[in-house]
Specification:
Elements: E1 4-10, E2 14-20, E3 29-30, E4 44-45, H1 55-65, E5 73-77, H2 88-99, E6 103-107, H3 115-121, E7 126-130, H4 136-142, H5 151-164, E8 168-174, H6 183-193, E9 197-201, H7 214-221, E10 229-231, H8 246-251
Parallel strand pairs: 2-5, 3-4, 5-6, 6-7, 7-8, 8-9, 9-10
Antiparallel strand pairs: 1-2
The protein binds iron/sulfur cluster (SF4).
């Protein structure tokens, strides 16, 4: 079981050492089943939190790797939605103690309406939340969420988290053909959430759907004028020398210099 992998050259985080708290050998456990997901179909669609990987195991694996690789940040991501891991908060604390690095979490934001999840995420230094749709209908079409997840509640959860979070909160918007004509509506919602940064992305990693072109993404960007925006096509890549967890990297389809 490869829990720690990378570092990968992340377009938004630099050299990012990954921690997979979900750790599925095949498929993924997630509250969404996004049309563009590079991991293929969600094998377990759930909103129930549980411990997938004991924190002691995360600590042991991180200790083995530190000193062997050069990284700028430890990022909780991997084979599913990291906030489904009940031990996310304590794993973040342990990862910070062992690595001495800032801790980031990539989340689909679906569980942010829960106080325990917001408490866990508040332990991180950087949280990147996902916002791909302007309304319930497109949310269902793009994110294909678990039936218990309601679009408006996800937005409310993000606002609540933003209000209380002392670290950096970024919103990632993955643009695909389904939502590219709704950039204004998505930007309007983003303004109400007040993130520190908006990361405009498109699936340039292997994905079941086609990525937007740089021209299409430039057009989309206009709707976010006045906000602090990062565009995937404009990002500089950090150089990564030595990596661990090659099997996991292949599973995540991240063999080269990208993180999503
Ligand atoms: S939230 Fe992330 S892991 Fe889950 S289906 Fe979407 S892209 Fe895949």
């Amino acid at each position: 079981m490869e829990i720690v992998y990378g570092p990968v050259s992340s377009w938004r985080l630099g050299r990012s050492l990954g921690v997979d708290l979900i750790c599925q050998e095949k498929g993924k456990v997630c509250s969404f089943d996004c049309v563009y997901c590079s991991l293929g179909k969600t094998t377990e669609l759930t909103t129930k939190r549980r411990v997938f990987v004991p924190t002691e195991l995360v600590a042991r694996e991180l200790k083995k790797v530190m000193g062997k690789v050069e990284a700028d940040v430890v990022t909780f991501s991997g084979t599913g939605e990291p906030t489904l891991a009940q031990n996310l908060g304590e794993a973040i604390k342990v990862a910070r103690e062992i690595s001495g690095l800032p801790i980031a979490v990539l989340t689909n934001s679906s569980l942010m309406m829960r106080e325990d999840v917001r408490g866990n995420l508040a332990q991180a230094d950087i949280v990147i939340g996902q916002l791909d749709a302007p309304n319930e209908e497109l949310f269902k079409r793009i994110s294909r969420p678990h039936e218990k997840i309601v679009f408006k509640e996800v937005i409310e959860g993000m606002k609540k988290f933003r209000e209380g979070f002392k670290g950096k909160f970024a919103l990632e918007v993955m643009f695909v053909s389904e939502n590219k004509d709704f950039s204004k509506e998505i930007a309007a919602i983003a303004r109400t959430i007040k993130p520190d940064e908006v990361q405009i992305n498109t699936p340039i990693r292997p994905s079941p759907v086609r990525p937007l072109t740089p021209q299409e993404l430039d057009e989309v960007k206009k709707a976010f004028e006045g906000m602090n925006v990062q565009l995937v096509y404009e990002a500089k890549k950090a150089e990564v020398k030595k990596v661990v967890g090659l099997k996991k990297l292949r599973q995540l389809k991240r063999p080269s210099a990208t993180d999503r």
